[in-house]
Amino acid sequence: MRRTKRLGRYHLTERIAYGGMAEIFRGFTYDDDGFRRDVAIKKLLPHYVEDKSFIDMLTDEFKLVSHLKHPNIAEVFELTEIEDTLLIAMEYVDGKDLRSAVEKARQRGVSLQFDDIAYVLARALDGMHHAHVARDEKNQPLRIVHRDFSPSNILVAYDGTVKICDFGIAKATHNRVQTKTGIIKGKVKYMSPEQAFGRKLDWRSDIFSAGSVLYELATGAAPFTAANEIDLIFAVRDAEPRPSGQVNRHIPAELQQIIEKSMTRSRSGRYQTAMEFRDALLGFLRRYNPKYRRTKLARFLKKLWAEEIEKELRAMEDFVLDASPSQDLGKNLIADALGPDATYSKFSPNPTSNVDPDRAVSGINGIESEQTIDDPVHAAKTEMIQSPKADKRRATQPVRQARGKSDEVDPIHNEKTALTDTSDDLAGEKTTVETPPKGHSVNE
Ligand SMILES: Nc1ncnc2c1ncn2[C@@H]1O[C@H](COP(=O)(O)OP(=O)(O)OP(=O)(O)O)[C@@H](O)[C@H]1O
Ligand SMILES: [Mg+2]
Asked: What pLDDT sits at residue 206?
């Protein structure tokens, strides 16, 4: 038995990753219905927490991105100062990032197929487009650019759901590095040429980055390589990758053309919106595999990650709640932007006062969602911690749908809407986006 670690409203379980900027934990909390909500917690490393100007920048960025609500964007719940640390709480995506998936597949001697690649990128572009055209309460464009669109920031759930994460982080980090050293830093590999020149960016920079990701997935090789970072920056600036069809002659011609267009050096030659790029991929997908379903990707992922899925399930069963009586929920730095009804405000570290905390986790009671009844992996993952309140609901109400499956419009998955994506938010936004933002082309 292991004990969770309490931090504010959250119980931390496994550490998922450790990077240059933060440690990432898996965790959970309880919503106001007594149901467990899985979260991912980024805990910033101490030297970032000490840097006041960085925190201010991060806060400003997160105030913008905290409004992004979309099925293909991992929702940010809080940016909170607590116990001498700073945490970012966000929606947990029950799967792995695309970089890990590609690496794992390579080790196994398999790879994502062209239809799966097109599907994953199309869904990620849906999320990206939503961010690009997002507006504030006064209907002013927020002009959000991700700046670090890369395989490690594309999360692919075991059920094939795709979510982008880390909006806002690249800008704050980049500003910090620039002020301190005056040099460009970041994941150069997926940068756009204008980004590698240190120019002002508009959303077409993300389109180039998405093109680089697509190139790498389809060819199995990065579009730009060099012996050191400086040379890599020059290679990205030149934007002359070897044509994808030469690296992998099996790539269908249509997909090659899509890659080429998205990675055009001049911004005006690229897809002008993420939605246009997505539509090109969906068009390709329709012709390449008209019967494509997300379940194909899910099957691939569940096989690929079978051991990890099993291990993760066991790990969750092994935890008992830290019965810390601490009432400290920390100070949410973006609370004013989120407003009083924000999702996080309904989170509580305790399911109900009646539950023996030691039994709350180990007493997990699997409840199968109606939708996932034939899906043992997913069903087991949607288990909810038994609490008297939840139990009462269970007796009287149909069980709530699995997380992330409820209202998602999936044009490929759902045959009726296939190929003419009519998802409301996108259709609505279409009318507001006629021209790309003004900016200089690197060729100008
Ligand atoms: N919301 C989440 N749900 C599930 N796993 C996540 C979530 N956010 C991050 N992860 C996992 O943690 C890993 C590390 O995330 P993190 O953002 O710190 O580093 P990175 O993505 O590798 O690099 P960077 O974001 O700096 O480009 C991700 O690659 C992913 O596997
Ligand atoms: Mg990341």
From this structure: 97
Task: Find the CATH number of the domain harbouring 328.
Answer: 3.30.200.20
Distance CA 154, CA 163 (A): 6
12 contacts 83 by C-beta, under 8 angstroms: no
Cβ–Cβ < 8 Å for 410, 422: no
Q: Give distance in angstroms: CA of 444 to centre of ligand 2.
A: 32
Tokens representing 258 are 């899509």
Q: What are phi and psi of 3, to 5 degrees?
A: -100, 140
- Distance in Å, CA 89 to ligand 2 centroid: 13
According to the model, what pLDDT value does residue 437 have? 55
261 located within any domain: yes
**CB contact at 8 A, 426 and 132:** no
* Domain count of the fold of the chain: 2
- The 3-class SS string of 7-65 reads ECCEEEEEEEEECCCEEEEEEEEECCCCCEEEEEEEEECHHHHCCHHHHHHHHHHHHHH
Residues around ion ligand 2, judged by CB within 5 A, are 153, 166
> From the first residue on, what is the mean pLDDT of each consecutive set of 10 residues in the chain (444 residues)?
90 90 94 92 91 90 91 96 94 97 97 98 98 92 94 97 91 64 66 94 97 98 94 96 98 98 98 98 98 98 97 87 82 93 91 52 33 31 37 37 38 37 31 44 36
Residue 374 lies in a domain: yes
